[in-house]
Amino acid sequence: MLVISMFLTTLAGRSQKFPASAIPDSLKENADVVVRLGERSYEIKSSVEALSHERYVFTILNEKGEHSATYRTYYNNKSVIINSVNAYLYDANGKEIRHFKKKDMEDHPAFDGSSFVNDERYLLGSFSYSSYPYTVEFDEEDEIHELLEIRNWFPQSSTKNSLERGTYSITFPADYKLQYKMLNSEIKPALEEKGNKKILRWEIKGLTAYDDLPFSLDYSGYAPYLMIGLSDVQMGDYKGNMSSWDEYAKFYGSLQKGRDVLPAETRQKVQELIKGLNSPESKVAVLYNYLQQNTHYVGIQLGIGGWQTYDATYVATKKYGDCKALSNFMIALLKEAGIKGHAVVIHGGQESREFVKDFTNDPFNHIICCVPLEKDTIWLECTSQFLPAGYLSNSTSNRYGLFIDDAGGGLVHTPAYLLPDNIQSRQISAVLDAEGNLNVDCNTSYKAYCQDDLGDIIHYYSKEEQLSWLKSKFSLPTYEVVSFNYTEDFSRRLPVIRESLNLSVNNYAQITGKRIFINPNILTRSTRRLTKDDNRRLGVSLKEEYHYMDSVQISIPSGYEMESKSTDLVLKNKFGSYSTKTLVTGNKIMYYRSLEQYSGYFPARDYAEVVKFYNDMYDADHTSIVLVKKN
């Protein structure tokens, strides 16, 4: 009877875990998910091996938190072995409903197999439940056999997640030099020593969720974030150290040594291409064009290939490669031309957090090429088949990367494209008929950042897809795209795309009796109206700079004049400047608009001024003028 009683007590304990009623009200506010418990621990056994354990308990409060009921874990058969996964579903009272294990999960390749080929795979398992709130628990243990990084810790993980309790610990040999840095929190680790091992433990409790706030930093810019840096590392037979940026560069460089040898026919082609060219700039440009015309991007990261490039001969023969292989091939082409090129390891895409220069770890996911010359430095995005030499786009510009030199390397900063560079200039000539319909001829020039997305559309969309995109681009009444055309100008370092459009807009202006109501701002209107927030906790982050200019001429039926004085507007502050001017001369409306957006980070107390600036601009952009027929 005693054994039976103990067994029933154990079952009761299992069936009543993490009741939702125990969650403090403060953790429910603004939250879709409450992280009841987030545990992560590592044991570093050597420069090659480690054990990891993770346990997460999520209480899902509404349908927006449903994503937390799905568990996805990545592995690599050669470097990570998943020993076990256990998952449990509990109702609001904490009663277990069902569970699954590793053997019940779906096994998938990490990519679709067309654009990427690699050893990465993932296991997938999920719960579904019809009654909120409910709770899920996931527990996983792994063996790591290729120690290049220890995952950093982001205990809250989302603006809409609150955190009840989170812990992170690392056990490592006493003589192993482990680095760590905690951002956005003053929490210090507890240190424990056991024989020849050290244990560091962090614990965080009671982090509340946030509203989604416009113009705020990425969540990792203000939520607690722990960075971990390793010292001795090993990949296959390659050993290295990552305790400094220079050591990191040496290790990366050692993986690429001897892999820049071109086949004879490619070397001969290089000499043919540069024959008669005197400047290194012209040689770089012609070789970069050769790379773009004769290779394409395919991600192939099998085994050590996630870090080590395929050699230049492979790319010359196969005509494809990933970012490492294409950059290495470009460096080999330059070498044959007597020009020194360098790989730069960088983060491609939108950076999720500010780069920490004084802490060495691995925040990178991409490789580009850098060519330092006597009077200039040329940057090359070797995975692009259309960007001009020297232009990086907003995917890799204005950020830090790791420059790889023969003897090591260090941090470099890629070019920043600022207000004078990022320009959209639009000229419109339109005709309004007596029924209020508008025919629009528009010519727009897009420069630098302003042309990035459009460049992708031109090169990756068919004509039919471009037309479909244009039909939904503008905030207009029913309109037809009569014709359109795009031309690219790469004659200078910063690319320019020129767009010509003819649009037919039905019922653009409202004509009632002897009056015409018309908005002279036809195509460039702000789309964001902000809500006041007197309790905002977060600062204001404006990331990009640009200048939009519009010059509009609208021919109207004869005999009209402006009924009241134009409400021209001039705004200027530390966030930007905005101005409009409207004139009616004869049978023409002349409208001019200018918007300059500045970048910077501003304290939360400035948000009221941001709201006023953007809302005043929104109102001006959506204001019609009234024309009245002369007696």
Description of the structure:
- With 631 residues, the protein is α+β, with helices and mostly antiparallel strands.
- It has 3 domains: 218 residues, Sandwich (Immunoglobulin-like), CATH 2.60.40; 170 residues, C8orf32 fold (Roll), CATH 3.10.620; 207 residues, Jelly Rolls.
- 18% of the residues lie in helices and 40% in strands.
- An 8-stranded mixed sheet has the order 5-4-9-2-1-10-13-12, with no helix packed on it. The protein has an 8-stranded mixed sheet with strand order 27-28-26-25-32-36-35-34. Strands 22-21-20-23-24 form a 5-stranded antiparallel sheet.
- Strand 29 and strand 30 form a beta hairpin.
- Helix 5 packs across helix 7 and helix 6 packs across helix 7.
- About 2% of the residues have low confidence.
Overall CATH architecture of the largest domain: Sandwich
The total number of structural domains is: 3
Largest sheet: 8 strands, mixed
Which CATH first-tier class of the largest domain would you pick? Mainly Beta
Helix content: 10-25%
Q: Residue-averaged pLDDT, rounded?
A: 91
Count the DSSP helices. 10
Work out the radius of gyration: 30 Å
Please give the order of strands in the largest beta sheet.
Answer: 5-4-9-2-1-10-13-12
**Number of beta-strand segments:** 38
Question: Based on helices, strands and strand pairing, what is the structural class?
Answer: alpha+beta
Quote the beta fraction.
Answer: 35-45%
Low-pLDDT stretches? 4-13
Please tell me what the overall shape is: globular
CATH fold-level assignment of the largest domain: Immunoglobulin-like
- State the end-to-end CA separation: 106 Å
